[in-house]
Every structure is written in C-alpha cells, then in structure tokens.
Amino acid sequence: MMVDENLLKLEIKRLTDDLNSKSTEVTSLEQRRLQLETAMKQRKHEVNVHRDMIKAQLKSAGEEKSTLSTELHERFSKIDKLRKRYEILMVAMAPPEGEEETSEAYYVIKTAQEKEELQRLGDELDSKVRKAEKEIKALENTCRLMNSHNEAYRKSFNKVSGNSSEYQQKVELEEQLRAVTEKHRFKRRQERELTEDIQTMQRTLSTLNQTDSFSKELLQDKKQQVAALQNEIQEQTMKLARVEKQNDKYARELRSAKKTKGETLEEKDFEVRDLRELYKNATKILGEIMCQQPEITETVNLYFSQAGLPLPLIPTDSTSSRPTSRDSSVRSATSTSSVRSSLSGASIKSPTTVTLDITNSPTGSARGSMSKRSSASSGRSHGSARSSLSKQ
C-alpha cells in the first residue's frame, strides 16, 4: 500500500510539474500573442498613416497636374493669338506694289520708340493724376475740417441747458479745477513747511556742530587736566612714600627715645588733629556738593543726623565756593572720592567711627579717580606733623 501511495504521489508530482510547465508555456504564448497583436496594430496604424500620406501626395500631384495643364493650354492660346496678331501686322505693314520693302528691324525700332514715347507720356499723365488726386483729397479734408469747425462754432452760440452733456462736462471740469487748485495749495503749503523744517534742521545741525566742536575742545581740555592730575598723583604718591618712610623713621626714634613700643600720646594727638581737619574738609566739600546738587541735601542730612554729627554748612557765596563750569564736575568728584578714601583708609583708633555713603549723588561715578590725590594730601599732613614732633 505504501508503495502504491508513493507511486501515486510521484505520478501526481509529475503531473503537477507537467501542468505547471504547460501553464507557463500557455502564459508565454499568450504574452507573445498580445505582443504580436500590439505590433500588428502599430504596423496597421503606420500603414494607414503612410497610405493617407500617399493619397495626399497623389491628390496634390493631381491638382498640380491640372494646374500645369491649364497653364499649358493658356500658353498655347497666347501663342496662337500672338501668331495671328503677327500675321495681321505683317499684312497691314506690307508696302504697296512698286515700293521698296522696309526691313523688319526698322519696324521693331519704330515700334519700340513709339512705345517708349507712349510710356513716358503715360507716366507723366499718371503722376499728374496722382498729384491731382492728392490735392483733391487734401481739399476735401480741409473742407471737412472747416465744416466741422463752422458747425462747432455755430453750435457754440446756442444756449446750453442744465441737463445737457456739455453743461455736465463744464461742471465736472470746474470741480476738477477746484480740486487741482486745492491740491496745488496743499502741495505749496507742504513745500513751505518742509522748507521751514529743513531750515530748522540746518540751524539745529549747525548748533549741534558748534556743540560738538565745543564738546571736543572741552574733552581735550579735560584730557589735559586728567593727564596733569595723573602726573600730580604720581608725584604726590612718591612724596607720600617718602613721607611715610620719614614718619616711620621718626616714630621709631621717638618710641626708642621714650622707650615704648606702642603709639605715643603725641602721635595720637596729631592723628586726632588730622581727623578733625579731614572732617572739616569733608563737611566743607559736602556743603559745596549739596550747593551744586540740592536733591541730595535731605539724604546727607539724614545720614549726619543718624550718625549724631552736626549738619554740613552750605556756603552762601556761590561765586567763591562753587567751582567754575569747566572743572566743577572734576573737583566735586575729587572732593567726594578724597573723603571716602580718607575715611575708609584710616587705620587709627578714634572714639567715634564715621562712615559716609552717598549713593544718590551723581558724582559717585567719579569717586575713584581722585582718591590717590586725597590720600597724598592726608599723608603730607601726617608727615609734616610727625616731622615737627620729632624735631621738638
């Protein structure tokens, strides 16, 4: 049974393979048939197109043949007519009996001369006719133009009604004229305003140029002042260093003379005097700044009241206490920065510690530019006091 079943399976497999091969062949043959049908259709289309083209060529050839045959018959008829005309002319121009026969060239030349004369005369007459036609056309146009002008002139004397198109056109033209006039006035007014603006801008520009030149001069002057102040600061710094060395030397000599290691009473006395002078200068500078910047008066008075210090005096004579307009900002900045640097840089012990912080003052941006100069002046005062003490 198993052998038969295997045989049947092999037979089924063989038949399946045959069926697949046959179906493949059928498919390929079907594709081939479709390709052949497509090629046949294309070929038929090409044959039809070629046949139509040949028919068109044949038709055009037939038309050309009929045209040529017609022209040929016309030429034959013209030849017959010319032959007959020539025979008639020869019979008409034949000389009478007994006279000498004239040559053919004579008649040809004579005919050509007569033809030339007739052609010239015809050209002259044709030019005269064309000139006359142009003149007639010009006269007709002139007459037509004159008639139209006369008609318009005649109609201009007629009274125009309110509903006529001419009256409406007149009203529209008057409105347009009024609008154009208003527009022209507006443009003129705009032109005047623009001219005035330009003049104002030119004046402003000249003023700004003058201000710019003055600012440049002022800036150059300030730069020179800054350079001079920097030189002075360097000199004072060097002097301060020398004075501090001398002070240290004299202080050591004084302490060694009194056989003490700490600060002596004389040093403390001069430091207190120096602080009093510094406080006096600071209050004076603050008074000048408050005179120049009144808006900071309340803030400064508040700080002094909180610290328990007497209020700074505002100078009454503005001409003597206020700096000039060219260097007021530099001096105020110098004074404020010297006060802050001197107060913050003091390392001595005093019964009362005072701290001033004016944050709203517009001169705060220039506080650091002149602090060295204030320190140098303070150092000079310390050095002079200590040198006088050591000499005593």
Taking all residues together, what is the mean pLDDT? Answer: 77
Major sheet: size, sense and barrel closure? none
Shape: flat
Distance between the termini: 150 Å
Calculate Rg over CA atoms: 65 Å
Structural class: mainly alpha
Oligomer: single chain
Strands, count: 0
What's the helical proportion of residues? over 70%
Helical segment count: 8
Question: Which regions are unreliable across 5 or more consecutive residues at pLDDT < 50?
Answer: 318-392
Helix-strand topology string = HHHHHHHH
Q: How much strand?
A: under 5%
Summarize this entry quickly.
The chain has 392 residues and is an all-alpha fold.
Describe this structure in words.
By secondary structure, this protein is an all-alpha fold. Helices cover 82% and strands 0% of the residues. The chain has helices spanning 2-92, 104-156, 165-258, 265-292, 297-307, 318-321, 328-345, 371-391. The radius of gyration is 65 Å and the shape is flat.
Reconstruct the topology from this structure.
Layout: H1 2-92, H2 104-156, H3 165-258, H4 265-292, H5 297-307, H6 318-321, H7 328-345, H8 371-391
Helix pairs in contact: 3-8, 4-7, 4-8, 7-8
Question: Which labels suit this protein?
Answer:
392 residues; disordered C terminus
